[in-house]
Amino acid sequence: MTFQEQISQGIPSVLPSKKVRCEQISHAPKRKDILTEEEKKLSLSNALRYFPKEWHFELAEEFLAELQEFGRIYMYRFMPDYEMKARPISEYPAKSNQAAAMMLMIQNNLDPAVAQHPEELITYGGNGAVFQNWAQYLLVMKYLSEMTEEQTLHVYSGHPMGLFPSSKEAPRVIVTNGMMIPNYSKPDDWEKFNALGVTQYGQMTAGSYMYIGPQGIVHGTTITVMNAFRKKLGAGKSPKGKLFLTAGLGGMSGAQPKAGNIAGCITICAEVNPAAAKKRHEQGWVDELVENLDELVLRTQLAKANEEVVSIAYLGNVVDVWERFDQENVFVEIGSDQTSLHNPWAGGYYPVGLSFEESNRMMAEDPELFKEKVQETLRRHASSINNHSKKGTYFFDYGNAFLLEASRAGADIMAENGIDFQYPSYVQDILGPMCFDYGFGPFRWVCTSGNPDDLSKTDQIAAKVLKEIMQNSPLSIQQQMQDNITWIEEAENNRLVVGSQARILYADAEGRAKIANAFNQAIESGEISAPIVLGRDHHDVSGTDSPYRETSNIYDGSKFTADMAIHNVIGDSFRGATWVSIHNGGGVGWGEVINGGFGMVLDGSKEAERKLNSMLFYDVNNGIARRAWARNSGSLEAIQREMERTPNLKVTLPNLVDPSILDKLL
């Protein structure tokens, strides 16, 4: 069968031969054995309902073996035989270009060069899934191949509920992931209901088909590291020869060494999974691999002495690095952590003193002991960071729930008031007041032609637009504008593409709309040869309610509410988004955050122009308005400026209270 025929058939008509996992790629760890016997029967019934009855006897035994061996039913037998990668949009069988674009994005999320555990349909973060099993993938691709522009596909945590009649104005796909009743959002609830096959953890951009490889976070990490050094060293001082120490080289965290190189510092990133570290080295995202701690100390001292710009992956546990650098007085200018601590008991964070393989065995065979080891490691980790902090290290939480889980483990991590953490999140100190409050966030696009020339043209268009905007930008956002102009002009030289021909930069509402309009015009004129998919990370001004990350710099008491993310998705859906998504969990953990996202296909039409102007405007300004109501000064400035430009926008603004009035009362 041709590729197009395989896509269009969905579940095959003939039972395919049994497949074995490829041992040359990374696989998800074995999940907790959490189901009762009756629940295992239910899990098998749930899995078998995708297939004809005559297959059930054979598949039931096979699926039970997967459930017992891996803790999940992935349906490996149904993995497609064709190469998994983003193809040019013209190669997909589809009645709608919008549907074909989504097929491209889905396959990019599952490309082995992009995905963390591709055969388990996990893109990044240890559990960030596109689908729960391969049957769901096959059905979604079939539905997309059949979809007209008067239908909408509804996807429930990976499961395609079906194509429903709608309209050309409606989104083509609605995605939800992990949307649990609030009292069923504890970590073990994810383990149980995911094992039953009824929900999944979509992370931020895995389950919404918008992941573009580690490039997606390189830019945000670069901006963060640059501004962290500005806070530590002062404006205008070079970070050459200065050290950034962190951990994690998996999906999103794999961007850190590349970002450090762009920022111009020494980056040391520890990773316990040798396959992940070697993958990033082969892709050119990290310069050197070091396996010996003694060698790492000497190499770091040399890099500092020579004021190098270099990235080094240490194959081992970061706690050993923090403790050894403390003993050897290796000064760490800035430090953080980007392990997947939102998922601490199932492969997101590994205990010190155990190998990667030993940890994975303990995780499955003795989860309580594994939890004890993780929490003991967190206490050591925090203690060593405290020692470095006393020497002058600037440490920040990278929104991965490090401080939250360390506090739950009893680490010495709280401020004197016993309420706050003694270290800020990077959003509180950097991205919140400098970017999100003004509407700057991770605007991204994918050239569906697959042609690098189209991507190069979009880089040039975006740079031109940003330079024109900057001429009239207020002083408060000049630094962000210049950082992004520098970024986009250097993007091609930094070899950021892994998988699809994609790009990202931080832009505000004005920047996003003007760049998108310029792209749409270039498609209409033929300068760009095929449609462009617009999107963003959920890590943005509006899309996410996350009290320990994106909304951690909202101080009016509302950071634990999730109205904004829900309004964002609903508002985007009727203003022109091609697809929208809403997730429980993502980045900081199941039950800790609600994420909303979108995708939009630009095809050069007037209809696309109308939709992009309406949707992008709301997508950003919804969050600025919420932050302004919380009395964030940057957002107050930004929303008042937007209301002057847009008379039809009327936002409720706060009346600021003189604190002395309250101090006299209480």
Automatic annotation (TrEMBL):
Transmembrane segments: none annotated. One of its GO terms (biological process) is L-histidine catabolic process to glutamate and formate. InterPro entries: Urocanase, Urocanase-like, Urocanase_C, Urocanase_central_sf, Urocanase_CS, Urocanase_N, Urocanase_Rossmann-like, Urocanase_sf. Gene3D superfamilies: Urocanase like domains, Urocanase superfamily. Binds 1 NAD(+) per subunit. GO terms for molecular function: urocanate hydratase activity. Residues 84-210 form the Urocanase N-terminal domain. Residues 436-640 form the Urocanase C-terminal domain. It is found in: Cytoplasm. NAD(+) binds at residues 125-126, 203, 271, 398, 587. One of its GO terms (cellular component) is cytoplasm. It catalyses: 4-imidazolone-5-propanoate = trans-urocanate + H2O. This is Urocanate hydratase. It comes from Algoriphagus halophilus.
